[in-house]
């Protein structure tokens, strides 16, 4: 399983556009479980962060995702369920 996962996560079709949230058929958006995000940050992101070009995230995990690493090839960022005050905090504070 780890060998197949390793092959999958290094495929540019997977790494160029990442969606780190759950979206249901009736359109509500929810965060991924912490256990999934933890594994992603610890085991996957360190080896693919430079390949990510497009990233879709929801409000409860956006700060953690953006602060976790540098994304040198990121050109598109989708922010979902982000309130105006959260956006102001993210983009006007000195956290980045």
Give the SSE layout.
Layout: H1 2-9, H2 12-15, E1 17-20, E2 22-23, E3 29-30, H3 34-48, E4 54-58, H4 62-67, E5 76-80, H5 84-92
Parallel strand pairs: 1-4, 4-5
Antiparallel strand pairs: 2-3
Structure summary, number of beta strands: 5
Give me the strand/helix succession: HHEEEHEHEH
Major beta sheet summary:
3 strands, parallel
**What is the percentage of strand-forming residues?**
15-25%
Q: Would you identify the regions where 5 or more consecutive residues have pLDDT less than 50?
A: none
Q: Give the N-to-C terminal Cα separation.
A: 36 Å
**What is the count of structural domains?**
1
Query: Could you tell me the radius of gyration in angstroms?
Result: 14 Å
Report the average pLDDT across residues. 85
How many helical stretches? 5
By secondary-structure content and strand pairing, the structural class works out as alpha/beta
As a percent range, the share of helical residues equals: 40-55%
Oligomer: single chain
Order of the strands making up the biggest sheet = 1-4-5
Shape: globular
